[in-house]
């Protein structure tokens, strides 16, 4: 195995926010880094189809990778955005209840947040919540002051800039098809219009929806370590008219997601989503008929939503490891200490809060690779 006190050559597969963050972290450590991206640009997969929310970290079980990386990653991400001029806003959010069952849920979220070390949480009565957001209807709410929003594409451009300043490069239109062990490192076959073979010391699989297929195309990686890929589509609807809220508004969580919530972009425009639509193939069309369920969900906490205000916007797909009715899986970061193959890390199930967690995940991957 290579001496990690010296520099090595690493291939990172996938130029989404996590792949770019991992590549940057390795480049800043002095390693030679190539990123292989199957499409023609950065962030064209999961990273470009989300809410662009910086999560605080109160939803996830204590001790989980999601809890650890969300809390640590959020702190690192705000500092990175400040130092690199990435547009962002710490707007805060309210997690709201509209009945006794939901009240118990958000109380549990509040306690979980405290256990996870999340700063800036407060439990509000209905009156206190409405004083902050007069259009809101609720029986109580949790205020998260540390939640924010970020320009995800600007973030990825900044990560790319740091990577390239460290000597790293990105190869676009470069789909990886096969990864083979060569004794001291890895031989990687890249397809596309200009097929080529690379020899590197280490490989990081950050391919998002394609991670499981790449793991199966990795020689020597045990088939039984590849988790299932469950596709959970999240649809978003835009909202006509002036924004009704100045903070993000989240209902109590639902099976598979955090509920149909209000998100804001940096221009103050309001949109709703994502919902959870379990699918069996990758497709992104937003069915306008889903607006009916959106109206019903939203009006529980915003009764004033006008008829005809919702318009189909976009959708994304969460690369989940568990399906309907199953307990949400943790991030899976499978490195040499777990599977026994030197110089190889597979990342599976990096869904929300993956964007928030990207810088912390990157350091984790670098540490696992050098262990």
Automatic annotation (TrEMBL):
It holds the Pfam family DAO. One of its GO terms (molecular function) is (S)-2-hydroxyglutarate dehydrogenase activity. Keywords: FAD, Flavoprotein, Oxidoreductase. Its cofactor is FAD. Residues 9-368 form the FAD dependent oxidoreductase domain. The keyword Flavoprotein applies. Belongs to the L2HGDH family. This is Putative dehydrogenase. It comes from Microvirga lotononidis.
């Amino acid at each position: 195995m290579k001496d990690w006190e010296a520099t090595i050559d690493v291939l990172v597969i996938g130029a989404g926010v996590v792949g770019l963050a991992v590549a940057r972290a390795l480049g800043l450590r002095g390693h030679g880094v190539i990123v292989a991206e199957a499409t023609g640009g950065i962030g064209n997969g999961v990273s470009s189809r989300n809410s662009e929310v910086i999560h605080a970290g109160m939803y996830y079980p204590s001790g989980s990778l999601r809890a650890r990386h969300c809390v640590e990653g959020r702190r690192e991400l705000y500092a990175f955005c400040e130092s690199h001029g990435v547009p962002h806003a710490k707007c805060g959010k309210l997690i709201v209840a509209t009945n006794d069952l939901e009240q118990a849920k958000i109380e549990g979220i509040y306690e979980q947040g405290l256990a996870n070390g999340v700063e800036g949480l407060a439990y509000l009565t209905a009156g206190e919540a409405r004083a902050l957001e007069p259009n809101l209807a609720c029986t109580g709410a949790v205020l998260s002051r540390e939640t924010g929003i970020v320009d995800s594409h600007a973030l990825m451009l900044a990560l790319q800039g740091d990577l390239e300043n460290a000597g790293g490069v990105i190869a676009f239109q470069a789909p990886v098809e096969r990864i083979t062990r060569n004794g001291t490192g890895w031989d990687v076959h890249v397809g596309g219009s200009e097929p080529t073979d690379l020899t590197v010391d280490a490989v990081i699989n950050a391919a998002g929806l394609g991670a499981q297929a790449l793991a199966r195309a990795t020689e020597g990686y045990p088939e039984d370590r590849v988790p299932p890929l469950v596709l959970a589509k999240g649809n978003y609807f835009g909202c006509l008219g002036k924004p009704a809220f100045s903070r993000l508004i989240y209902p109590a969580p639902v099976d598979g997601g955090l509920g149909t919530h209000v998100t804001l972009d940096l221009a103050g425009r309001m949109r709703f989503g994502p919902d959870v639509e379990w699918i069996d193939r990758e497709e992104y069309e937003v069915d306008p008929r889903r607006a009916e369920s959106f109206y019903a969900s939203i009006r529980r906490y915003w009764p004033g939503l006008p008829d005809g205000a919702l318009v189909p916007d976009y959708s994304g797909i969460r690369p989940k490891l568990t399906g309907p009715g199953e307990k949400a899986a943790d991030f899976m970061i499978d490195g040499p200490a777990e599977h026994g193959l030197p110089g190889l890390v597979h990342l599976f199930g990096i869904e929300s809060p993956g964007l928030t967690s990207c810088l912390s995940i990157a350091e984790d991957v670098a540490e696992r690779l050098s262990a």
